[in-house]
Sequence to fold (520 residues):
Amino acid sequence: MDRVMDAARLRTLVPAVIGTLGRRGADFAAAEDAVQEALVEAVRVWPDDPPRDPQGWLVTVAWRKFLDATRADTSRRRREVRVEEEPAPGPAPDVDDTLQLYFLCAHPSLSPASAVALTLRAVGGLTTRQIAQAYLVPEATMAQRISRAKRTVSGVRFDRPGDLATVLRVLYLVFNEGYSGDVDLAAEAIRLTRELAARVDEPEASGLLALMLLHSARRPARTRADGTLVTLAEQDRGRWDQALITEGVAVLQAALARDRLGEYQAQAAVAALHADARTAAETDWVQIVEWYDELVRLTGSPVARLNRAVAVGEADGPRAGLAALAELDPGLPRYDAVAAYLHERDGDRAAAARLYAEAARAAANLPEREHLTRQAARLNAALRG
Amino acid sequence: MAKYLLLKHYRGAPAAVNDVPMDRWTPEEVTAHVQYMEDFATRLEGTGEFVDGQALAPDGMWVRSDGEGRPPVTDGPFAETKDLIAGWMIIDVDTRERAIELAGELSAAPGAGGEPIHEWLEVRPFLGAPPTITE
Fold:
């Protein structure tokens, strides 16, 4: 390698380096700390003196950091521990280090917030500061969250397959609930899911990747320059990223061909049907309802039922949508917003205005609240004539 | 992963169970109370749930614009203002239940007689970022 790696490529090496240290006998927490320190040194040294073998360089430096830390630790405790200076590389790994790291960082014993933080650091190679900025908490708080998470998983064996469902859930959270800072968490989630999907024989991993790609494709059209939301029906579909759509559809089709349907594949199928429609009017709502039926069957999720009611409203008319809605709990998030939309389409603008105002009060984020408030204001202005 | 604001009121909250004004406590009770609050914040730092905490002076003022080119108008403080915030803490927690649990603990800070105040704290969720996937 004769040129400096950019930070993003550098980060892709992190899981393998942690894995190598692990096989040499370092425990996960110490290995992870040592690799973070090696990354800092790489950023400092490489611009002037780029290594030929970046991964080998990181392993060497991280191992030295690990030994330094271990020595400091042992001398502090006045304990003798023999540590090999130049350990044998160890037996050829019969497990995928990177994959094991995904499992460890999303271990079911961790809370979602802890699993997200640990995954972004140990698998994603982000610094604590970057993660703290992304989630709008102080760096000290994020550092504690990560070190607690490491302690929680300290007893977990590194060599057993883990729970893929929790890994997918964590990556979904990074993609869907990420705030935006310097780091593009959606892009990071896609990168990590892409890596994962290449390593496991599981159509749901591909389903999640497809879901992320298809939603990412709409990103340029989702918000106006001033940050306000643009609804799916109103989005300029010419601004959707066709390359992402093409890839997302291909990934999804390959996953569906395996005939092991899961919730992420079903959600991606809905997104693919939207991507397929050149205009909102051309949307195949009948098929979308069928996919929501699958999703409800797979998950029983109230959110899926609510989205199904919207789709039914488009496929069979607002009365049918309202009938589907009537079977659901009115306390569901976005219930009032859906009801408002369906009532307006049904011609009841007064009810729609009232429900949009209710929905705005219950909104969980500012862009949605402002969008719903504008809808209520638009209808109220029309009602005043 | 949701942020909540825990609001402590000088005035405007329903009466606490142990409702003795702080200036009638013993100095030791005041010290114990302050220590409890500090320990609580330190503990939340340790659990990775602390975002921020500040106390506010009771004497503020009201300010409004008086039109372009004119200095802002100030007024108050108004003794009759019912709602007076004493301070806040921002936490970042996994669930609403956890926010309630922590607010409950904070409300149990010791007051007069060394007994928990059991004061009412206002718990307000932050408006977050919009999720990417909504359909």
Remarks:
- DSSP finds 20 helices and no strands in chain A.
- The CA atoms of residues 197 and 205 of chain A lie 5 Å apart.
- Chain A touches chain B at residues 111-114, 116-117, 135-138, 140-142, 144-146, 148, 173, 175-180, 186, 211, 215-216, 219, 229, 232, 267, 270-271, 274, 307, 310, 334, 363-369 (CB under 8 Å).
